[in-house]
Specification:
The protein has about 400 residues and is of the alpha/beta class. The chain folds into two domains: about 240 residues, Aspartate Aminotransferase, domain 2, CATH 3.40.640; about 100 residues, Aspartate Aminotransferase, domain 1 (Alpha-Beta Complex). Helices cover about 40% and strands about 20% of the residues. The longest helix is centred in the C-terminal third of the chain and has 25 residues. It is globular, with a radius of gyration of 21 Å.
Length: about 400
Amino acid sequence: MFPALLPTYNRTDVAFVRGEGSYLFAEDGKRYLDFGAGIAVNAFGHANPRLVAALTDQASKLWHTSNLYRVPGQESLSKKLVANTFADTVFFTNSGTEAIELAIKMARRYQFVSGHPERFHIVSFEGAFHGRTYAAINAGGNEKYLEGFGPRMPGFDQVAGGDLDAVNKAVGPQTAAIIIEPLQGEGGVRAFAPQFLRALRKLCDDKGLVLIFDEIQTGLGRTGKFFATDWLGFAPDIMTVAKALGGGFPVGAVLATAEAAKGMTVGTHGTTYGGNPLAMAVGNAAIDMILEPGFLDHVNKIANYMHQQLGALTAAHPDIFESVRGQGLMIGLKMKPSSTDFITAARANGLIVLPAGDNVVRLLPPLTLSEAEARTGIELLNKTASQMEAQKAAAQ
């Protein structure tokens, strides 16, 4: 019998029923330290009191009106994002992949109204993940996600990450934009050199292209700055945001300069649920927390501690770990044995970590993680590595 729930996930047989701060509690009462944070979504921990208060207060007043009317929460949140980023304007969506859809449309529309309707191609990079809609999987270019869904959508050109020569060869008279994650998440927590990203900015400026940064996972404090672009000294033209923006409530956004957004006039895009009062109440509370003095200082303090301890961990277990990757609290452990086996063993020890490409174990703890909790996580990683070493020795 076909299952009632569409079987598109190979779900782990654990059901969490409650969360508190950095911890999750399963049906059987077992407690887990959460170094996954719902794939970088629960940036403020589980059941954060300020987010709960914002949501419940709004829920008792008004849930939905549609975008046919002013939504005051959109106005206040967009002003906060504009005031603290490169952007002049913001559009709210329900998710990251919807933000990607708008970013693609916005870039192509920009070229259209600029007198270049032939420019619709988007250059993207191998290993990228931009979401699961049809346009997003074509932008990502992963054959596993494209298989069986018909012909490739025209207008997407993938090149090797970090290869500026390949980018230059891919750019032609039909190119509208370049889209990139400044630090790939799903692709294996792989960073791009700042000079490569700066070269993309210059190329876009020289060729009249739109530069799109996908900061759905890297944004909102994850790398230790408000956005990863803040480390670079320059900005994109369009940026996609989601995940931490709602701290667990579904919400995304597209941030853009006035120039990049000039083609998006009345009727060119819309959403029924995007920017609803519930999402905006939570989003405003989330942004207020990130922008508070000391919040990002805490992220960097804990991140520095984590990277220091993980360096020692990898040195102590050279048969298990190859290297540490990432920035801030977006961390990857390149594995020698199967990353899947390590994730399973860590979960048995009460630690939630995530998979990523290139045989990498991904650590995305809440940004509110305490040093004591970070220390506990390192201890559990060490315990798991020691167990795997013992198993390997016993098998020989």
